[in-house]
Amino acid sequence: MAALDTTRATTGSFGFAGRIGAFFASIVNAIVEWNDARATRNALSSLTDRELEDIGLCRGDIEAVAAGGR
């Protein structure tokens, strides 16, 4: 029977190759976060002022919501 130890931190445990993998993973994560913010910004910008008001927002709130601040 095999067991998987999930309590051990894996950051840096694979030496140089692990750091390279973590570096590329952080780049991919940054791109995914940027795309999510872009999609949120575009979706909210396409709403009318009345629709934004219905969900408790105004045009000035769009950037903060897209950045995850609200």
Automatic annotation (TrEMBL):
Domain of life of the organism encoding this protein: Bacteria
UniProt domain YjiS-like: residue ranges: 29-63
InterPro entries: YjiS-like
Name listed for the protein in its UniProt record: YjiS-like domain-containing protein
Source taxonomy: Bacteria, Pseudomonadati, Pseudomonadota, Alphaproteobacteria, Rhodobacterales
